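Supplementary Methods S3. Input chains for the assembly prediction are listed below.
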Amino acid sequence: MLHFEATLLGHLFFGLSLLVIVALLRKNDGLWHLLLLGSLGIIFYASSLVTLFIGWEMMGWSGYFILSKTARVSTLQRYILFNLGGAFALLGAIALLFSFMGSMMLCDIDLTLLPVWALHSVSALVLIAVFVKSGIIGAHDWVVDSYQEASPLFSAVLSAILSKAGIYLFIVLLLKQPHDERVLFELMAWLGAITSVVATFKAISQDEIKRLLAYSSIAQLGYIITALSLMQAYALEAALYHTVIHTLVKLLLFVNVAAIMAITGKERFSELGGLLYRVPLLFVLLVIGIIALAGMPLLGGFNGKFLLYTALLEEKRALLLATVMFSSASAFLYCYKLVYGIYLGQRPHDESPLHVSPKSYYIPQLLSAALLILLGFLPALPTPLFSAIGVEAGFSALEFTKPSILNSPFGSFNGAVLMSAFGVVFVLILGLLQRVHSKAKAAQNAQDISYCGEVPKAGVNLHFGYGMGHELGRIGFIAFILRRQSRRFWDYLNLIVGDLSILLRSLYALGTQHILLLSLLGFTLLLLGGL
Amino acid sequence: MVLIDCFLMLLLAYGFGFLYYGLYRNLSARVHGRFGPSLAQSFFDSVKLFVKEQSTTFGWMFYAGPIIMATGAVLNVLFIPFINHGDSLQGLSSSANLIVVLYLMVLGPLGNALGVGSNGNPFGVMGITRGLTRLIALELPFYLAVIGVMIDAGSADFSAIFEAQSQEMNLLKHPLLFMAAFISFLGFMGKSPFDVVGAPQEVYSGPATEFSGKFFALLLSQSAMFSFAKLLLMVNLFLGGADDLGDLVLKTFVLFVAATFIGSVYARFSTIQSVEFLMRIPTLLGIVGLALL
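Predicted structure tokens for the full assembly:
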């Protein structure tokens, strides 16, 4: 029997899912996408643990079937193994909760009633499910390959929506922790921050565009995990805000990249470049996306980070905040690589004719960009909703004065003033530059750079997209991060499990005498144990 | 009233920016045993470049890059209060806070990176990559120091930061945080040993290899104003802000001279040396400074 309940949190997460999936829906794989949307609806509106788990499983499998159309077998295996692992952990947590609560209803969950060991076990099991879905470092092995090998539009779904299911799970199951039992969440805070740093540097070193975006998603999820671990009203607002922004940004960026792949048929930075004046609208949309991704003021991307920083300041978590801010600052490098590698610099020499991109690629991007600009202008527009969700979760209401002013206990800012000041100053300087007597003469082409060096010949590679980020490998601590791979650990685990399977299989081939002998040995051990 | 205040702040930043730029060229020349150009030379250079008959553009993004950069510099000037009390020379600072200002400081580099990237010169982009790599390392110790200042003040608002320094300025209260921030500040000001290759006479700094005429003039002007905004920020964060205009001139001048002399006597680090140094010494100073809070 499935149980449902409409909550504001459910509305928020399902609304985002609906927005992304409807924006990306295509005839070919519409059925599976609708099934995926249905499973997300079950998760976000579930009022019992069983319903939640059924939705969780359906989400994993429908994603698998969509992915199976484009991905390699090994990638699919990794996807399903990790997601099943997460689902089993969730099942374990549900079983434990039921054994203590005697109820499967979400409204009956009261973590303060659990003994400490059970509380830690439930928290750890749910965190495993959350970390796998969010791709936190160590559990991210399935993320990057899946994003890369999924169809360009399904990558957007994976990043914008499916990665957020873990965030929802955390909020409904773990947010109301007893105050004195939060050791695990201290670890979670640092894991989120370390994830954001490691994934940021991994992103910078990628040559495939979608791999860069995949690592960027992991890094952004790291911020949300850190925010959630603080378990206070403004940190919850930060996590929800960043979830909304990340959904919009990744919808924009993945569709933008999908459009570029449809136009050029290329997906590596080393094969692209100089598309700015061929597809200027796509360039402008990508710039809006990276400004929001980098969390710069003027667009909505800043708001979630501002709330996270002030929440960390309020908690006096200085080192954690410095780590998160460092990661955020480092993200400028991969944001720039994204825009430079595709749109700026020289065109590659083996330039093939460009295809026309379908208009349908522009609609989700324009929608996301418009919302990001609106949230830049009116940063507190969603605050009443987040405040109400916080109140539902047991926190006090957030301070709200007007939509243009985003408040936090550590300061506030006015998005409308910022945006207007930017607009006015930009127009004034543009006007000044236009009125100056001097005329700007257009260069012949992108290779017309002879005044500052040699005249380049055709065939000389002048695009730096491929090399960007490689020099970071010479910097000690970044090289350390880049050398580390969780893949080795999982491969080793795979090897051990394989060996154990062989051992287990050999039991089937044993003769009757050996089986009798083993049974006798087992019986003796049991007997000794009993004594 | 706010408009007049903003106009005055811009005028002051423009004037002092070029005065300090001229002084920098003069002082560093004296350190190197030269006479150097006149104080107003940089200002005259910018005027000359503004009225040059021709400049080359690689399209609208190349055109917009310096404008975004200059907009970033102007916004920084408008959102950082010049005086630590009262209503005058506050600009738009009441609508923002320190975190907003820290992020607005990256708007200029973004405009620069987009503008430089849109021309065909690969060396410009190499300069940008070096600049951004160095920037992330500069920011870590600076953030540590700034976080300390905000925690000490209990707020990210400038008024609270001034209030917290009313008895004793942060330079004296938290010397380790100041040292961490000051080392980063040297890099932000483009001083050795953390500068990116540049030759102020031919190109305004490393990356801008293709900008000429009015674009170059705009970059020079914004650079002067942005440098003043950074001096202002350090004064507000660690020297208690300025009580009046005289105090502002004195405090920014002391910081400027210190940065110029240090920059004049050190050789330039390579990007990697810069990053490795910044991630060690000043970062450690910042961490210890935070621990002592």
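Strands of chain B lie at 54-57. Chain B touches chain A through 80 residues (CB under 8 Å).
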